[in-house]
């Protein structure tokens, strides 16, 4: 178990994050959490909550294939890597906080973002937003299995492709429309 003492009104920066068992806890913190590297959560308990409204930004690739992830008081987790994995072949992550929006952003350097969906029908507790302003003809591509979204699916910016075998199942929320297509979703493939 790793628990950080209270660090008020600052920015916590990690060079990467790899967690497979045990407990990581920053629940008493009141700061922006920035991870400048690869994130891999495959097991254990990760508590990235904040004492007051804050955000999380991940600049590297991100893989969520297991574990329990709590993000109370975090309005969003922005993923700015070129490769994002949600769910694995033998386990899924459990996202516990429905009020935290998962945002697919812009990788550096500019390139296609591939979102790999595990085969066991992973679930996102809240909203999923694509806000990729790179201007690429294909900015974000979903591949793999079925991703269940318990909040809204929001395409704010970026051309999205849902591959032939991928599915995005939107359960919606009363606070926002179930599907908001500001970016003008279009695809030449048969995903749904």
Structure, explained:
The protein is mainly β and 192 residues long. The chain has strands spanning 2-3, 8-14, 17-19, 23-25, 30-35, 39-47, 54-58, 62-70, 74-79, 83-86, 94-95, 101-104, 113-117, 123-124, 128-131, 140-144, 146-149, 153-157, 160-162, 167-170, 179-180. It is globular, with a radius of gyration of 16 Å. The mean pLDDT is 86.
In short:
With 192 residues, the protein is mainly β. It contains no helices and 21 strands.
The residue ranges in which pLDDT falls below 50 over 5 or more consecutive positions are none
- Cα end-to-end separation: 41 Å
Report the radius of gyration as a whole number of Å: 16 Å
Instruction: Write down the overall mean pLDDT.
Output: 86
Strand-and-helix sequence, N→C?
Answer: EEEEEEEEEEEEEEEEEEEEE
- Helix tally? 0
What is the general shape? globular
Q: Largest beta sheet, briefly?
A: 10 strands, parallel
**How much beta, percentage-wise?**
over 45%
Helical content stands at under 10%
Which structural category fits the helices and strands?
mainly beta
How many β-strands, per DSSP? 21
SSE arrangement:
Layout: E1 2-3, E2 8-14, E3 17-19, E4 23-25, E5 30-35, E6 39-47, E7 54-58, E8 62-70, E9 74-79, E10 83-86, E11 94-95, E12 101-104, E13 113-117, E14 123-124, E15 128-131, E16 140-144, E17 146-149, E18 153-157, E19 160-162, E20 167-170, E21 179-180
Keywords:
192 residues, mainly beta, ten-stranded parallel β-sheet, eight-stranded parallel β-sheet, 0% helix, globular
């Amino acid at each position: 178990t790793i628990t950080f003492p209270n660090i008020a009104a600052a920015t916590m920066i990690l060079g990467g994050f790899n967690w497979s068992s045990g407990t990581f806890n920053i629940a008493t913190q009141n700061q922006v959490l920035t991870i400048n590297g690869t994130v891999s959560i495959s097991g254990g308990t990760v508590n990235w909550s904040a004492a007051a409204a804050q955000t999380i930004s991940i600049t590297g690739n991100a893989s969520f294939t297991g574990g329990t992830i709590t993000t109370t008081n975090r309005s969003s987790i922005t993923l700015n890597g070129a490769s994002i994995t949600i769910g694995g072949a033998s386990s899924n992550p459990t996202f516990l906080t429905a009020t935290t929006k998962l945002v697919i952003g812009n990788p550096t350097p500019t390139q296609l973002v591939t979102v790999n969906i595990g085969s066991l029908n992973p679930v996102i507790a809240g909203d999923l937003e694509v806000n990729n302003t790179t201007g690429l003809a294909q900015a974000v591509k979903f591949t793999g299995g079925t991703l269940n979204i318990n909040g809204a699916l929001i395409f704010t910016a970026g051309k999205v492709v849902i591959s032939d075998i991928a599915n995005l199942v939107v359960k919606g929320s009363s606070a926002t429309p179930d599907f908001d297509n500001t970016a003008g979703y279009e695809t030449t493939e048969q995903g749904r």
